């Protein structure tokens, strides 16, 4: 376990010595050809083609679908609270569902049905549960074991996503404007194909696309978008659960966040958000960054040493060993973040937290860092900003509320948050 910040960086940034492995069964569950497991030039080329899906220009086209998801699920939150007569209830299942819907609509737009979104949200935990460190050999082939159930879930999602890929190709062939990640990806493929056809026809002045990529099959698109879901589902559900709990415990922070979001909308709480608005929310973005520091959803990322790895002058990790860089110690380092166990958004505004870039390991580092490092905080700011304007909620604290349990990511032992319409 690499709990030292500098050693964690060394693991993240040493692809010739270590590769992401998660757990031994991960490739069987997620797919041996999944791009996240690629190394070197092959990984770099794949990633280079995906990076433009997360530019500011692309992000701006995803927000209308996200706004609809928030509106739909906030109504569900209120209805659930009213059905429970305002009594404390656990909202984590609904938080998981809203994040699944948010991801699916961002990735796939309207190509996926709400029924499919609900099914994925309900079943996805089976994929997470399958990723245990130790499993019975060949258990992925033994009916009703966790790996067997997890692999069936992943295959079902792959099939649904592949169907969406085919629909996206058909729609984008008509010249439609992209509104989702899959649309942009397909549009880049079409543009690249047209360029290659012009070159093959002998044109010498054909303009090269900014994102020249190869043709991807529906299955390849599906498997890649599933890795996006894998990276987002548990982590975003964790962050959402902590966000609602922490803000309920700190009404002064919630009030300040609410005031900022109302002001940014010119007093009109129903005004849709857009990229410039979200980027202007200084305090809201500070709250999000502090949440990700204070309760980082992902606390470690297992790697596999592909050769003897000299991580320090005194210790070499043997080839074939798992080495796990931990993010939590760097994010709770008192030298970088004074009073690290205190939730203090102002450290990102009046303090110097923003300058501690080497400690900011929330999204990893190196060749395999998170593509969505900008998308995630903006989406969280959009969610909590809209929630602050449309909902009010309280936290039913218990002696277990501040205790942490780990299910792939960090969750509170108890997450009872009654919600009421504002």
Walk me through what this model shows.
The protein is mainly α and 422 residues long. 52% of the residues lie in helices and 7% in strands. It has helices at residues 5-12, 26-30, 40-50, 56-83, 92-108, 114-130, 146-172, 181-200, 218-249, 251-264, 275-280, 282-294, 328-331, 375-390, and strands at residues 18-20, 303-305, 309-312, 315-317, 322-323, 391-393, 404-407, 409-412, 419-421. The model has no long low-confidence stretch (mean pLDDT 91).
SS content category: mainly alpha
What is the string of helix and strand elements? HEHHHHHHHHHHHEEEEHHEEEE
Major sheet size, sense and barrel closure: 3 strands, antiparallel
| Uncertain ranges | none
The averaged pLDDT comes out at 91
Shape from CA axes? globular
- Gyration radius (Cα, Å) is 22 Å
The termini sit apart by: 46 Å
Strand order of the largest sheet: 1-2-5
How many beta strands in the DSSP annotation? 9
The total count of helices amounts to: 14
Strand % is 5-15%
